[in-house]
Sequence to fold (509 residues):
Amino acid sequence: MSDIHVRRGETAVLDRVEGELTVGPNARIEASNGKSVVVTGGAHFEGVHFEGSAEVNCDLECTSLECHRGQLEVNGNLTVHKRLRVGHSVQVKGLITAEDIDVGGIIKAGAISCCRIRVGGRADIKSTFEASSVEVGGKISAGVVKLGDLNVGGEAEVGGGSITGHIRVGGKFISKASLEFGELLVYGKGFLPANCKGHRLSTFGKICVDGNLICDYIQVGGTVEVLGDCHAERIEVGGKFAVSGSLFVSDRLEGFGATEIAGDFEGANLRVGGKFQASKIIVKVEADVSGKVETKQGLKAKQLNVRSGTQIDGTLIGERVEIGKSPDLSYGAWGSTWPTKWAMMGGKVQDIYARQVLMGTMCKAARIFADTVNLEQGCTVEQVTYTKELKADFGVAICQPPQKVTNLPPAPF
Amino acid sequence: MRDRETKRSRTDLYASVLEVLIRYPEGGKITRISYGVGVPIDRLRTIIENLCNYGLARKLTDGEQVYYFATPRGLEFLDTYWKMKGFFEIFGDKQP
Fold:
């Protein structure tokens, strides 16, 4: 069969077309073998050209396909070896296989496997969706995905799988099953199920994770809620970060917003400038805190720096503990000016267990158990127990007489 | 029937048009953009003219064909639009 032209409104029964197939508006294509129509050709082959709305009641295979106007409906599988280009909308009941898909309006399919897909409006894929680059202006809904990059203007809803590249969603992002992701940026709202794993997660809006999360780098500009444990390498909190389980950070957490952890926090480094809540905080190297820190059991760090004006609930444990010696992080550049320094002097902490304790001007502590203790002007301490040295400046108030002992009581944890 | 919960505001429409435009770096034709945004062409012409007047989109005439592009200012607008939407999401406010 050479080039074929199916006229407007006609029904053509075809088998194999050696050349170009042109289909008029409102025409219908059917397979003579009841299964599929294959359009194949030589060097000058252009593929299938639909002039308007058309219906294909079988599988269709061709090198390239174009449909400028109207809706193309394929009640089977559609295989396009090169480019599938549809101006308005295309609906395929089965699987679409193509190298490059470009749809102006809406694409609906049972499944899609392609290299690159660009949709101006909306994409609805019932089951699997495989592509290396996905660009959708409006909304996308798909089953299990295996994607490279995903860029969606409006909303994206996937049924789990993996998206290894960059994911940028303007509005809402929902994954209904466990997802492995590369870099996920959600401006609006996001929902992830339990046991998701990713490289980077950032949001300006709100992301809820319904269970445990493993992510290398978490950047919270808006709100992130994890209803389970969270494991990360690095976390930056500018907004609100809430974890209902425990939080484990292998490198560093920087929190200048609010961080609420129902369980324990364990990390290598901690730098907090806002509000930080946890049942127990264990920092392997250095903790630099200012603002308000609330713990039930306490904070343990090798080096602990509690900045001026900071309030900490719970016991402090460390090798070297410094209270109120450096300016509050939340004052930023204003921290170096004298009026601000005056306004934020001091710090209020509870019991301290350490080798070395340094307390700046006007700080308050409950009990101190340390080898060496240095208290600057105006400090108030209820009780000091030490083994080596106690230095107290003018105006220091120690409620009970200081005790020099040979052995200090053990720290609570 | 549309499954849109609320009517899109003018700002939402501007953002939708720009979201479609950025997917056509080679330039988008008005018909294609209308399919993408889901707005009739006559309405879209007014929206896109406004976007061009505000410097958020650019029009290029090549013979009889007219192509539209998003400008860097348009990309800046989109970024700000989504960030603000994110903040409204946190505050629980409806977008003004």
